[in-house]
Amino acid sequence: MKQVLTLVATAALCINSASLVAGDAAAGKSKAATCGACHGANGISPNDLWPNLAGQKTGYLVAQLKAFRDGKRADPMMAPMAAALSDADIDDLAAFYSSLGQ
Fold it and tell me: Is the per-residue pLDDT at 13 higher than 60?
């Protein structure tokens, strides 16, 4: 039951945050160079171990990056990458990746 509530809360956060995010896709593109090493230059990962970011919903990307940054989601590779990101950086990256594939 706890897992279901967590999933519902995460989904609600993604839906609600999508309308609040006002990132700059052009700024996000310039900030995405490090991300491209694993997730691909255009957000399409060359490796099945790492997800594609292109075309993901903005709110989802924001929620996941903040979860990595804030330690709510653990991953030995993503945590250090997200640790230095500001809210503006996250909004810009989310705007960039969500704009791809549309």
Answer: no
d(CA 87, CA 22): 11
Give the pLDDT band of residue 7 (cuts 50, 70, 90).
very low
**Residue 52 domain boundaries:** 2-99
Q: How far is CA 63 from the centre of its chain?
A: 7
CB within 8 Å of 59: residues ≥ 6 apart: 13, 14, 15, 16, 17, 18, 19, 21, 94
3-state secondary structure of 1: coil
CATH, residue 21: 1.10.760.10
Instruction: Quote the number of domains for the chain.
Output: 1
